[in-house]
Amino acid sequence: MRVVAKFGGTSLGSGDRIERAADSVANAVEAGHEIAVVASAMGSTTDDLLDDITFETDDADRAEIVSMGERTSVRMLKAALSVRDIDAVFFEPGHPDWPVITDEFGEVDVAETKRRAQAIAERMDGVVPIITGFLAEDHEGNVTTLGRGGSDTTAVMLGNYMDADEVVIVTDVEGVMTGDPRVVEGARNVGQITVDELRNLSFRGAEVVAPSALSYKDDDLAVRVVHYQHGDLLRGGTSIEGEFESLIDMREKPLACLTVAGRAIRNRSGILSQLANALRKEEINIDAVASGMDSVTFYVDVDIAETAEALLHEAVVTDEALSSVTVADPIAVIRVTGGELPNQSGVIQDIIAPLADAGINIIDLITSATSVAVFVDWDDREDALEIVQAEFDQE
After folding, report:
1. Percentages (nearest 5) of helix, strand, coil residues in the chain
2. DSSP assignments along 21-57, one per residue
3. Greater pLDDT, 310 or 174
4. Closest of 90, 234, 244 to residue 170, by C-alpha
5. Spatial separation of the C-alpha atoms in residues 210 and 155, rounded to whole Å
6. Closest by alpha carbon to 217, among 157, 139, 257?
């Protein structure tokens, strides 16, 4: 197999850990696999360097300073592999064959980066390239960076462009866990997780794989997360499945909007569960939920709106904190899904402003980490869909 192995700062945080990383690479090479390595800065080096920049500096000088952590890591790994009789060569910005190139806007130059990455891949037979993560270089030779989580981005991007079979993210967690083991007891490893699931978790605080990295994953590229203590690059950890597709989709069938109003709902523990359980009695699927200060709104198929209203009404009349339930239908929902949405400033405005200009009333707007759902009158659905599609086709 051809594998790109990314070692995070924790996995390179000491001499012993660098030895362990070198052992795992050497073992994989000796087993006949082609291994490319992406290295983060040792431990907290990058953060320490940033903290020490207490003076005014421009972006170019700042990038040069923070690059020193990764530059040290690749040299350490190269030396550790050499004493294990592994032929290794390190790449950093300034090297004539350095692969990651950015354009004048600071974005990755895909064509040039892919060309350079493939050139390195063609010379991997018996040679381990060790590449600084996080760093890039513009066309004028200046050092640039890929931002937070940039080493993950480097690894998955190069895995894609080098036609690797798998990218292995070596970090300080045993893959993706069912919960934070520092907080909850009995947290265990998740054997598989989809790109969609992980991106949502990542944008909400899970520090496993940087969300920006997953945009480079496709169905042909396996990505796995393993603990640095595992010592085996080829087994264990969590496999990340699938690829993330950006799309604009309109639900084919209309929805009904059921709103339950009540005094101080926001301060009432368990109220959402109570109302959802009322619908569960008849196995009514809830398409979406929105909550306000004094109301909770459920969106369900319009065909079962009357049954849902009756069930919610029963809950209302038995609870003094709840006042009334109302129904509005038919309603259409248009969903914009894309892993980069959280990184696009003004994306909500880009959706709602053109609809407002067209005189289309937005009934509700529900956002998640990687999607935006817009609810409009059923009669406005086709115009709304056309407007939203036109807006994002310009991207």
Report:
1. 40, 25, 35
2. HHHHHHHHHHTT-EEEEEEPPSTTHHHHHHHH--S--
3. 310
4. 234
5. 11
6. 157
d(CA 272, CA 280): 12
Residue 299 tokens read as: 């969106």
Could you tell me which residue, 73 or 175, shows the higher pLDDT? Answer: 73
Distance CA 102, CA 370 (A): 25
Residue 231 DSSP symbol: -
- Structure token digits, residue 344: 């696009």
Q: Under DSSP, is residue 323 helix (H, G, I), strand (E, B) or coil? A: strand
C-alpha to C-alpha distance for 125 and 123, rounded to whole angstroms? 6
Q: Which residue has the tokens 């994306």?
A: 347
- Name which residue leads in pLDDT, 395 or 374: 374
Contact criterion met (CB below 8 Å) for 268 and 242: no
Residue type, 259: T
Tokens of 140: 């004028």
Residue whose pair of structure tokens reads 């040039």 in the numeric block: 112
Sign of CA dihedral 27, 28, 31, 36: negative
Q: Determine the straight-line distance between the first and last CA of the chain, rounded to whole angstroms.
A: 36
Question: pLDDT tens-digit profile of 39-53?
Answer: 999 988 888 888 888
